[in-house]
Amino acid sequence: MNRDDCxxxxxxxxxxxxxGKFDLPQGVIYLDGNSLGAMPHSAKSRVEQVITEEWGEGxxxxxxxAGWMDLPKRVxxxxxxxxxxxxxxxxxxxxxxxxxFKVLSAALAMQPGRRVILSEPDNFPxxxxxxxxxxxxxxxxxxxxxxxxxxxxxxxxADTAVVMLxxxxxxxxxxxxxxxxxxxxxxxxxxxxxxxxxxxGAVPVHLDADGADFAxxxxxxxxxxxxxxxxxxxxxxxxxxxxxxxxSGWLGHAAPFEFESGYRPAPGIGRYLCGTPTVLGxxxxxxxxxxxxxxxxxxxxxxxxxxxxxxxxxxxxRCAGHGLGLASPRDGAKRGSQASFTHxxxxxxxxxxxxxxxxxDFRAPDILRFGFTPLYTSYVDVWDAVxxxxxxxxxGIWDRAEFRKRGAVT
Length: 410
Ligand SMILES: *Cc1c(COP(=O)(O)O)cnc(C)c1O
Prior knowledge:
alpha/beta; Aspartate Aminotransferase, domain 1; Aspartate Aminotransferase, domain 2; 7-stranded mixed beta sheet; 12 helices; 15 strands; 35% helix; binds pyridoxal-5'-phosphate
């Protein structure tokens, strides 16, 4: 394998035309679309149009005339297609953390006789923090039980209210089997709640077919919705009207413009809204979602695995002897769209990479994380990134004071 082979792979890539639909700066190899997706050109023109025409000229009229009020359901229906859900079982709103609070509340309310939220210690912290906050809010009757991934099946018992897992682990990219774990949860009377932050737009997801009860996910990662883009949530149709979530804001009311003094939840998924949608952010997200919907998920997954496999193989061949250890599953079928390596100087090495234009990220304590977004990452990107990493490791240039300074975001 050499660079020319990568050029040939790019030329034969059925997704090659998507790269031109994104704004990517010259001289940058972007391997962090799992944290903040790149900007679709169409997002820029759409936001410009929303600002100048819909806001600037349409003003308040645009809630009706520009379809602002429909955005949460419309964008939700687009995301539903990507995550294998009925179009009226997903809605776009708020942040992933807030949405987790809503659906976890629903799950616990549906399981009055059970007190345990089962998760793993290396779930993304916000999921655990939100569960802790909700438990306190509910009077401390519940317990957040954390067991490592391999012990989860055995830990689901008669006291488990909900199994709350992130489908693709944010550090390692290891992917859970949604279908079998959801089925096992159901067999033992528990519910299954999935966080799709690193799955939506990255790997095939079949929420309905795989029996998920609830799900949440991010708009700004693989869906390319822009910084701080609204998130989404999923509630299986069979559960939607069993519970009214506690953030009972007016836009989740059955008739918000009747301005009644009592809360009556809207029918269906609409009751999971709280307040006014963030129109600018959700308009940008709609562009990212529509672009993703136009891609073939089978091709996307095949390329994602191929990019990850290539990266792992090249790092192991060309950077051997420099202390890097694979932290991701070697089997592409068990991995999300990222590859992670451990190194005890991971932080300065990543800073040196970023200074050379290879943007990945670092996750404490020792993980170098590289995301592959098949819509715009090329095989040549992977080759070049590994060569730059090799240069940094062989020269030891990462071991400079300037690369050890930490910003607020790593
Ligand atoms: C990125 C991420 C989040 C982010 O939550 P926000 O509320 O958008 O900040 C949540 N959960 C997981 C698993 C994530 O990876």
